Amino acid sequence: NVAKVIAVSTGKSVQEITNAMLARTTLNAEEAQAWGLVHDIKSELFESGSELISIQCPLLGPPEEEEQPASRASPDRRRGGP
Q1: Quick check: helix, strand or coil at residue 54?
Q2: Cβ count near 57 (within 10 Å)
Q3: pLDDT tens digit string along 29-81?
């Protein structure tokens, strides 16, 4: 389970991790590093001068409905409707 994986990564007991999870504990960056969950804390996502490339694609509309063969009964007729 997740608590066991985190316990192995942090060196804390499964019970300690489970208690923190049940308490919905939120850690800031420094606390996460102290727990052993984070190796480095960076103030910037990218190094200065890095090139960022954005790939965009057009949004697709909803799929077109397929026409049903004429031999199929309408939903009302299948349920015994008019």
Answers
A1: coil
A2: 5
A3: 999 999 999 999 988 888 888 998 888 887 777 767 666 666 555 555 555 55
